[in-house]
Write a sequence for this structure.
């Protein structure tokens, strides 16, 4: 469903309704205090359902042993004694530290390669009368419509000898066809006269791409880059399929093993003189997996609020 | 110009179209050491699960269909309700803030969502810690086969209901405000305006989303389910996607799993095309024009 999700992003700009001023139009009746209260309550509950899990995970990750014991060994809402020893333990060497480095590496390398491949393909398809433009466009559209199954994809990755290699987490998802279509639509809306005059002045297509198109497309590159980055950071399914050696695990597999399946974390996994409580360690791992998303989230949101992808839906 | 685009096109051909062709293994007795070219061709015998009534396949199909129905009935309308609720707020800044909160879970991976649910609702989770402290009986929610479908459904709502509001909010904001004004002047109450203006304006979008949902109706939350399959067992949790994974990748029955995968893909395409025809018959636009 990513395709649909991303196309909706384009329209969010218009989600500022006619009542943007926030004032009630003169024809609208005064809100009934009872209905207002019910609505307010419903929204407060919804917000609590989203916020409380985050809050208690963070609180438990920094709670000391006594606070956790006081909570009967369970989750904490308000840590009385605060300690960062579980973060120190998981981040000073061992399986979690390695997974963080691996996931950051895959995310950075993958996002850069994906952006380059997507922009290159989109630029090719955005030029009128490009060589092979029509068939390649059909190729991209076809990839949006038909997805190959799990088994054939796995066999192809295996055939290319990519099993248990980090490249198996990047190459099969290098290009998202829908992103190509969005970017192509964006490139097509740039003033074409710029390209023509540059071409007359003797600029090559590469020069036009790097000196004119890309500087004008920072916003769309940022959004699509962020979408790629979030997908690489979160990638679990492919990692589970393709990565076998424990020492190549990205964050998602560490999360599954030590947090979801609750495998005991011992001195072999983390380095600490006094092992912090299991629960704090687990929550610290969870927080580390969430933080990058929380950090890029405001940027993502600002961009999809700006609606840089308007016109994308035209394909 | 061509050179810049070639890596991207190559990636699509190698990892999208080659696997699409690789679906031929559905008609082969595929052996990894023989490869696509040398494996023996067996016609449609891999599809025997369709007419033999293979109990494991039927169980997976049954679970998939139940989850699809539950999720279409329960999960699908939640974003619409949430969007209407958000839209009825007057304060624009409050609305923005709430949107930021509600969109966030969409960007978390399933591993994180499953972990969060465990910590909240698990046997040693927050809810039960609270219950124990107040001398109340513990509620077993996670790892209980009977509650598995409810759990999966509530996770789907938690993760994506907020994100789903985007498209409805956008559509609501495009409704002509003069309609509301005229209706209000004629004495329509807020409720009547909702029923007679807002909902009918969203009908086309709703149908469009429903058709797309139908197309993916045989795929229900692969990552989400595979992560939680252990404690609840196959009977309650196996769906078609996990069946393909467990049989093919884990079990090595390549041909049969490939056949199920192909069956799923073909049914998905047929459902979209069929639903779209139906939408046209009722005078709606659907996903694509005739």
């Amino acid at each position: 469903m990513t395709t649909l999700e991303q196309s909706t992003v384009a329209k969010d700009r218009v989600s500022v309704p006619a009542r943007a001023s926030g004032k009630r139009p003169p024809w609208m009746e005064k809100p009934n205090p009872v209905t207002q209260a019910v609505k307010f309550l419903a929204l407060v509950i919804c917000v609590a359902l989203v916020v409380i899990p985050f809050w208690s995970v963070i609180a438990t990750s920094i709670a000391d042993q006594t606070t956790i014991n006081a909570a009967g060994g369970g989750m904490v809402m308000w840590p009385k004694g605060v300690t960062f020893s579980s973060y120190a333990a998981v981040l000073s060497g061992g399986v979690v530290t390695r997974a963080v480095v691996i996931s950051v590496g895959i995310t950075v390398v993958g996002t850069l390669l994906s952006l380059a491949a997507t922009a290159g393909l989109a630029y090719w398809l955005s030029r009128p009368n490009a060589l092979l433009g029509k068939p390649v466009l059909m190729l991209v559209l076809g990839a949006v419509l038909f997805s190959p199954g799990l088994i054939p994809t796995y066999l192809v990755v295996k055939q290319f000898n990519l099993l248990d290699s980090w490249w198996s987490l990047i190459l099969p998802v290098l290009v998202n066809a829908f992103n190509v279509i969005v970017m192509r639509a964006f490139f097509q809306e740039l003033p074409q006269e710029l390209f023509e005059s540059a071409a007359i002045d003797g600029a090559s297509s590469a020069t036009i791409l790097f000196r004119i198109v890309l500087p004008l497309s920072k916003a769309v590159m940022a959004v699509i880059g962020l979408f790629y980055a979030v997908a690489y950071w979160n990638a679990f399914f492919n990692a589970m399929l393709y990565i076998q050696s424990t020492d190549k695990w990205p964050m998602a597999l560490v999360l599954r093993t030590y947090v979801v399946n609750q495998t005991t974390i011992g001195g072999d996994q983390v380095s600490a003189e006094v092992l912090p409580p299991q629960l704090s360690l687990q929550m610290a791992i969870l927080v580390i997996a969430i933080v990058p998303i929380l950090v890029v989230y405001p940027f993502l949101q600002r961009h999809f609020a700006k609606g840089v992808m308007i016109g994308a839906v035209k394909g | 110009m061509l050179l810049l685009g070639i890596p991207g096109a190559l990636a699509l051909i190698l990892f999208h179209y080659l696997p699409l062709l690789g679906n031929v293994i559905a008609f082969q007795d595929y052996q990894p050491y023989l490869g696509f070219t040398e494996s023996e061709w067996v016609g449609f015998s891999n599809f025997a699960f369709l007419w033999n009534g293979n109990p494991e396949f039927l169980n997976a199909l049954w679970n998939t269909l139940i989850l699809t129905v539950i999720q279409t009935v329960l999960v699908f309308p939640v974003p619409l309700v949430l969007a209407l609720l958000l839209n009825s707020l007057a304060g624009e800044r409050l609305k923005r803030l709430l949107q930021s909160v509600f969109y966030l879970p969409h960007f978390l991976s399933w591993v994180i969502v499953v972990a969060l649910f465990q910590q909240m609702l698990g046997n040693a989770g927050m809810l039960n810690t609270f219950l124990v402290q107040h001398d109340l009986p513990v509620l077993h929610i996670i790892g209980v086969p009977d509650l598995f479908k409810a759990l999966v459904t509530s996770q789907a709502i938690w993760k994506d209901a907020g994100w789903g509001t985007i498209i409805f909010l956008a559509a609501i904001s495009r409704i002509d405000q003069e309609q509301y004004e005229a209706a209000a002047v004629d004495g329509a109450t807020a409720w009547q305006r909702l029923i007679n203006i807002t909902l009918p304006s969203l009908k086309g979008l709703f149908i469009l989303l429903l058709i797309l949902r139908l197309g993916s109706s045989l795929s229900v939350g692969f990552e989400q389910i595979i992560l939680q399959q252990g404690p609840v067992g196959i009977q309650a949790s196996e769906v078609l996607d996990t069946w393909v994974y467990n049989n093919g990748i884990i079990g090595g029955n390549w041909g049969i799993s490939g056949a199920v995968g192909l069956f799923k893909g073909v049914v998905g395409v047929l459902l979209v095309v069929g639903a779209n025809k139906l939408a046209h018959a009722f005078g709606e636009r659907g996903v694509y024009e005739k």
Q: What stands out?
A: Chain B has a mean pLDDT of 86. The beta strands of chain B are 28-29, 40-41.
